[in-house]
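Handout, section 3.2

Students often ask what a structure token actually looks like in practice. Rather than define it abstractly, here is a full record for YfhO family protein. The first block is the sequence as you would receive it.
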Amino acid sequence: MNPTTRSSAPLGPRGKAALLAAALTLAVLCAADAVARSHPFGPRTRSVNDLGNQYVPFHAHLWDLLHGRADGGPYVNWRSGFGASFLPDLGTYLSSPFAPLVAVFPRDEIDLAVYVVTLLKVASAAAAMAWLLLALRPGRWWAAGLLGAAYALCGWTLADAVPNPMWLDGLVFLPLLCLVGEWARRGRRPFLGVLVVALAWIANFYTAYMATLAAGLVLLLRLWLGDLTRRQRLFAAGRAALITVLGMGLAAPLVTVVYFGTRHAYPGRVREFAPVPTEDLLARLLPGTYSFGTPAVFVGTTALLLALALPFHKAAPARLRAGWTLLVVAVALSMQWGPTHLLWHAFATPQGSSYRQAFVLCALLVIAAWHALSYGVPGPRALGAAGVLLALVIVVAGGSERTTRAFTLPLALLAAVGALGGLLLLGAKRRNGRPLAVLAVALLVCTQFGEAAVTSAADTRLRLGHMDDYAPWGARQREQAEAIAGADGWPRHRTDPGREQTVGNDPLLVGGQGAQYYSSLTSDVLSRTLTALGGGWTSRGRNVQSLDNAVTDAIFSVGARVHSPPDPHQNWFPQDGSGVTVTRQDVPPLVTVRPHTDRADGPTDLFGFGPSPYRNQELLLGTRVYTVPRVSVRTAAGKPPSPSDDGRPGLRVGPLPYASAPRKPTITGSCPAGSELYLWAPHLSGTARLADGAASGAGPGVEPTGRFRSDQPVTKIAPMQRLGTVGDSGRFRIELSPNRTSLVPDGAVGCLDTARLSAAVEGLKADGATDVSVSDGTIRAELPPHSTGIAVVAAPRISGWRCAAGNAPALPAKSHYGLIAVPLYGSASSVTCTFHPPGLRLGTAVGALSLTAVLLLGASDLIRRRRAPATSGPMPPAAAPPSPDDPPTRERVTTAL
């Protein structure tokens, strides 16, 4: 066959199966979203929970990086957290081979871009599984395509991974890693195998870890089932292990950075694993169920029936039936036992979904189903036994809260009838099989399409009721982005997107350079520093928020601040009708010079802070600017409140009996007339209003009512809020409207002397840097000659910063109350700080070693081939190694890599 003829040949069975699987998957997902009226097919937003808070904004930042519009680069993200390490975030959220595709979409269609990337990932997973199935056993290509789609459309995908698109890379690479195991077993394509492993671990190391464990189990089973000698099995397992280690080594530069990033991150909640009840586990095998905390192992009724029929399918070898059945059962049980559950999750129970490894069980169910079908359609007895087991599953699952009699059970029964009918028609004896076979295939396809589409649509709708959701890019974000672009002066000063956030990562989505930052890798330094200054957070400290405060704006060089009305998509508080405004403030440069100072008196934490955020702000500013008055707190009944009884400091104020109650809890006291009044109540939930003693004309951007959000147990705390200006009398009265039992801490009120603040800012400007330049991971500041004391960079002192004064050698940066600091001794007129992501040097060394090993092995293999004695006459064609499921033969296995 000439090249032209070969290139024009139709797709082979594997290609057709992969194409069918991908097409069916895309059709189901789009149809389901159209039924659910989800974006982009309807008005309902897709951006729930972390999809809106993290993944869409991070992809927007990637878009900016790829188009050269970002503040920072691969090392430092200058938009978030006043300067955050970006390479760990890149390795966690954006290192997928699919992620750069967002660059081809318009910036204001970033939600659509992430949606398309999600579709492509799921379709690719379907194609990869279909390809793998035909590599494991020959069979009908359309059946492989149908089961490939069943894997990609499993419950884990629809319920857990679609709103967490970074997990979908594990779904894609699990069948590819199993294929690498097949190559290792047969001694083929070792270097391609190394590349596949490396890409899997680069794309998302977390799910790649689970997929690698699963592929190892599949390979061990295949070796046990195959007709190989003990020596051949050991060599094949050794080859697979070597390929895996080399591939992981090539991914080490990114994986080690992510690892060290997690070590320096703010600690999250420690959860104890608790297995779900059996009825909940079995319920998630059925279509139409939803829960984020139970294993979503739905794979479609056809695949489930075939997997249940495998133990009774006499046409399949007994060892094969026993092996695959035991593996599926063992993995299912391992999900419910604490030690093995921890093993699947790299020895740390997840804070969100506790069953992130569920896609592994889905893959094994589909592979088991394929082995049943590849030996011929199971007979009536096998299908009858499978039907009985399925009926038992439905009966037991009926007692679960995850099933509903009006929806789940009828859908499951209808799908069972369609799948059983299709399989019976497919296996029925007939004279002319084509019309009957076509009917059977149509019935199976329609059954799978219908139940998967209904399940996906139901999951989409139910997610909106169970999780926070956020509006896609629209007029609000466009107006914010335009306001930020008009005020941007980086690096002369920062422009904060504002306190009234739209999502947890507003700076990544709309621009600017603020405190706001939400990541699994939010640094411990940033979170603790901002909390000590009166900042608020959600997600147990990993989602830090903007702090609208004149003193912190001066400390962090926030010269422009955007003020927006509350997001109308949220219904936390009543909405204002005002539009987006920008306020400007005279602030010091990004690098200032401070004298050497002693730590504050009294109890301090690791960074030298005390319990009062007002005093902590003064420590960083270097000047006393607050009056912290003694206050009197009263309940709605006018009585002194009782102390907290849950370990948190403060006085308890309860919710009002009804919204229009004539009396409310109050805080009263006195401050210097004309000062700005702030309220710090991190464990207050509701609103606070300065009722008496407020001067008129509070100024643009100032909310008349402070909105506070907190909860118990503590996953979010409220930031310090400005309530207004104290009147001429000096007396003030703050009215509280808590919506749940809240706390007012000691020293809750601070009164800011704006004249003193202005004087402090002028002093910092006079002694601060005359010029500041910022690139990706480098800050350079020109200082007044003969500066002494310490140069303080208005950025958190995260691990990785090294600084030098003048021409001195760079040393690890010092810390000044959590900020980057460089000692000065009068001989330097400049300061240069550079950032090196922790773990990058180690990872690069490991990656270089792995690459060297791969190249040496490749070179040695090439030399061995060239030195092989030439044969007289043409070489006979090499026989393809048999499948371990084929009749027994001895397989010749090469011992090379």
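Discussion prompt for tutorial groups: The longest strand covers residues 788-796. How would you have guessed this from the sequence alone?
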